[in-house]
Task: structure prediction
Amino acid sequence: MNFEEDGAKRAVSGTLVKVLLHRREQRGMSLEPHASRCVRRGEIHELVTTDHEDTSPGARIDRVGFLGFAEIGCAGVIDRGDELWIGATLLGTVLGFDACHFPNHYNILIQAEKPVTGADLRLEPEMPVTFAPALLPAN
Result:
């Protein structure tokens, strides 16, 4: 993210509506070239963890863990580098987006130490989900 161009923004909050339990080693997702996506209240998007770090457009994302689907509670902008919180737990940062199912939903790819699933984290429907802007680095 270019902090010289991007100003402050609000967090995007929502609710987990479905928990997913599976992981894949050869998923073949493709990273969108966009570093941010606007989301609308009421949309549902899939949350996917990965240990991949490459943010180049079209980067192949294979090792993934599926967390679940979240309903967006307030419109906003989700940026690469935003933190994903479920309840009081920080799960990782937004790596980017895969649009293989769009316009139905985006796969929001969350960079984490290792791919984890909803089962691994004992997630439950109705848990709060928040995409929070990462803090600016200290000068």
Notes: Residues 25 and 72 are 28 Å apart (CA to CA). The mean pLDDT is 92.
